[in-house]
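thought: fold this chain, then report.
action: predict
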Amino acid sequence: MEALQQLFLAPLNHLLRQNAWAGERLARHAGATVLLRTADRAVFSFAIEQNGGFRACEPASGPAVTIELPADFLVRLLTDRSGLLASAHLSGRAELAESLAFVLRNLRWDSEADLARVLGDIPARRLDQLARRSLAQTRDVAGRSISNLSEYLTDESGLVLHSSDFASFIAARSALERDLAQLEQRLTTLST
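observation:
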């Protein structure tokens, strides 16, 4: 379990060192403990250090803040970090919870700086730019593919209804239910 905590905390502490403002903001809460729960109830506990970083610690009986992550947190961590943070539930001391949420929402990885230490400045810059362009193109292609698939399923194949067609169907169904209720009421009145 401790190895898993370190696997989680090492990259997080690296990001905090790269974003000095984040460490400064968290350093105000030095000594506070944070309990991280996942959907399968795995529990990680860590404390905030004087420099604003995190260190693993034993689960405290009364953590300052508890963060509960959704069941699909690993997928969201890789694909939709903002969606992960929005679906996480924070409870405990409000000031610390707000600071944690702000820091986690705004941490950015300076991949170019990390690459520069290994490859040098110019290759790191070019590789970083290439990776960013590739990622942007991949997102664009994925977005257009989804749009095309959606158009095919709704317009050409008829397998999926347009939202406007579905809304019309619901409205027609509601009108039919009202008419049926009125008819039943008339039949009841005529039979008595």
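thought: worth noting. Residues 34 and 108 are 21 Å apart (CA to CA).
final: tokens above.
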